[in-house]
Design goal:
This protein is mainly alpha-helical and 101 residues long. It has a 3-stranded parallel beta sheet, with helices on one face. The protein is elongated and about 60 Å long. It starts with a helix and ends with a helix. 19% of the residues are buried.
Amino acid sequence: MHRMLSANTTKIALIAAGCSAVTLSLAHVSQYWNIPQFNFLSSSPALDDRKVLGQYYHLLPSENSFNPARVKLMIDLEWRRSVVLVQPSTIFNLVIYLMEI
């Protein structure tokens, strides 16, 4: 990637990877070259920080935007407990930490 970004060619934008972890790394790096990055697959809440990732644009809602619907469904079904299984990684755990009942 460094070779591609350092080459003396015009860059218009980057299309990010499909994996949130790779997308996050690429989003941090693309800021140094001031290149906009677009993504239509990654939905980790770690990608929501516009102060840090000002050139990154979601084309898919963040996982956080689904939390109100999840909570409403649990309330409507009168569930008292629920379990959410996630991959043990900081970028995925943010969804659970931000979901409050």
